[in-house]
Design brief:
The structure is a single chain. It contains 16 helices and 28 strands. It is an alpha/beta fold and 537 residues long. It has a 13-stranded mixed β-sheet with strand order 2-1-11-10-12-13-14-15-16-21-20-18-17, with helices on both faces. A hairpin with a 2-residue loop joins β1 and β2. 48% of the residues are buried.
Length: 537
């Protein structure tokens, strides 16, 4: 049977374009070509098809960065099935929720990854939550003593290696309109929403990222450490495939190993959070520790690393702020590499698609704002999601009548089509009748010699909303609340001066698929509790 030539607007079509290219993936010392990845992906697709997976079916991928993740994704795309991203940090309750609500028919996992007993985690899931599963796909690596996969009633256990031994699937069951990705949001609702994308949108955005980020240069080599289960890592990888460039992949971030790979393989590009850049630079005292690395697309999560762009530049690495979301895809925009550091440290930038339109709206009056005036960002772009899977009401609420996505982010549009992201709109404080970005107060407290990190949240008091600051101190330094408050009074408007400043050992954090994030919600709860009688009842 002759093989079906995939539509170039599909994920299989995107991969097929690269068959003649060289190395596609280097993982733990082994290299695969693009032709090998396509062939193995066809085999895995045949194995899934033999187990009943077809167009529209959902396959949960509960894996770290590894070849199996990539091959399962390509296989699902070829079958017209949907790959459901499941973060490896998720545990029984979260896994049960995703598998159930996303209607997964198969779930792939690595029982022994990093010594975590994933089999026990899965075994702790209530049986009714897994009633829709037909197959557990178990991935293992050489010389690994993995825990035994749990026996689930009515669920077959399949070794991933057996899928790769299946004769390759010649047919291509996908179309440009086939749904192919589900990402979970980390929004404010109790249960995450499921963001659904289709193949033509994934492929188009990948090609736009190649152009917008300059990944099309012939010498590009990408280091992939951001997890594929998050939109940041996934879009990074998809763009690398669209460029036909090689990917150096780590299953988990290890700064020393990452620097070794960068230097050994002359890696030119990578992406990640600001703390990842900090840890890479700390590996060596050399003036230029990574001479080949010329572009780092970075997301700013840690206010204490506000100077990381300048420090990286001084050591030969160009960091450029980016913007993205599950709904619009990551690497949606980027600050120009030739821009001054003050601009490159900002989120937002130039959208990768020339068809993108960005505007800001006053969240209180509903008025559209002029360029440069901050408000809630609304974006119309070809990279937008189909919608929230199984939640038509939330999908309708997410878009304006003229097709703009309501981002829930504070920022402002610029006349040249670019924009600046400031913060989540929910983090913005109304103080003294003015909208105030807490980052402004944080930045000033970070100028205090003793302060290492700072987070400012709003608390409702009997006198209205008040800013409350939490700070961590530098090693060996000391500071008290009175001194830190005085530091603010000398430079900030009165309504911006924190009502209280609390010194704590560390900020509460959570590990998301896109990086380590500070739990501002927990800080608000702590502030409300510590304010005592001052807090509003």
């Amino acid at each position: 049977m002759a093989r079906t030539k995939p539509d170039p607007r599909t994920v299989p079509g995107l991969l097929a374009e690269q068959r003649g290219k060289g190395t596609a993936l280097i993982y733990r010392g082994r290299a695969w070509s693009y032709a090998e990845l396509e062939e193995l992906g066809r085999r895995v697709a045949a194995g899934l098809k033999a187990r009943g997976i077809g167009p529209g079916d959902r396959v949960g991928i509960w894996l770290p960065n590894c070849p199996a993740y990539i091959l399962l994704y390509f296989a699902c795309a070829r079958l017209g099935a949907v790959a459901v991203a499941v973060n490896t940090r998720y545990r029984s309750v979260e896994v049960a929720d995703i598998v159930t609500r996303a209607r997964c028919r198969a779930l792939a996992f690595w029982p022994g990854f990093r010594g975590i007993d994933f089999a026990a985690i899965l075994g702790a899931v209530d049986a009714p939550a897994l009633a829709g599963l037909d197959s557990l796909i178990v991935y293992e690596e050489a010389d690994e003593r993995a825990p035994t996969a749990p026996e689930l009633p009515g669920v077959a256990t399949v070794a991933f290696a057996d899928l790769t031994d299946t004769p390759a699937l010649d047919a291509d069951l996908s179309t440009p309109e086939s749904p192919c990705n589900i990402f979970t949001t980390s929004g404010t609702t109790k249960a995450p929403k499921f963001v659904l994308h289709k193949q033509s949108v994934i492929v188009r955005h990948a090609r736009d990222v190649v152009r917008g980020f300059g990944y099309g240069a012939g010498d590009v080599r990408m280091l992939q450490t951001v997890p594929l289960c998050g939109v940041f890592g996934f879009n990074q990888y998809a763009a690398t495939v669209a460029a036909g460039a090689p990917t150096l992949m780590l299953p988990a971030f290890d700064a020393e190993e990452a620097v070794r790979l960068i230097n050994e393989h002359r890696v030119t590009h990578t992406a990640g959070a600001d703390d990842m850049a900090e840890r890479l630079l700390a590996v060596s005292d050399a003036p230029r520790p990574m001479p080949s690395l010329r572009h780092f697309a970075y997301a700013r999560f840690n206010a204490a690393l506000i100077d990381i762009v300048e420090r990286a530049e001084a050591r030969g690495v160009t960091l450029c702020g980016v913007y993205g979301s599950s709904e619009l895809q990551a690497l949606f925009s980027v600050q120009p590499a030739d821009a001054p550091a003050e601009r490159r440290k900002l989120g937002g930038g130039v959208p990768v698609s020339r068809e993108t339109r960005v505007r800001a709206r006053n969240p209180e009056t509903g008025e559209l704002l002029a360029h440069g005036e901050p408000g809630e960002l609304e974006i119309r772009a070809p990279s937008a999601m189909i919608g929230y899977d199984g939640n038509d009401e939330a999908t309708r609420a997410a878009f304006t009548g003229d097709g703009y996505f309501r981002t829930g982010d504070l920022g402002y549009a610029l006349e040249d089509g670019s924009f600046v992201y400031l913060s989540r709109a929910g983090d913005v404080l109304r103080l003294g009748g003015f909208l105030v970005n807490p980052a402004e107060i944080e930045a000033h407290l970070l100028t205090h010699d003793a302060v290492h990190g700072c987070q400012v949240v709003g608390v409702e008091t009997v006198r209205g909303t008040a800013p409350v600051a939490f700070v961590t101190l530098r090693s060996g330094a000391s500071a008290d609340e009175a001194g830190l408050t005085a530091h603010c009074k000398g430079a900030l408007a009165g309504f911006k001066v924190p009502a209280r400043v609390f010194v704590i050992d560390a900020f509460p954090t959570t590990e998301s698929a896109n990086g380590t994030k500070i739990q501002r919600g927990k800080l608000r709860e702590m502030a409300q509790s510590r304010m005592g009688d001052e807090a509003a009842p």
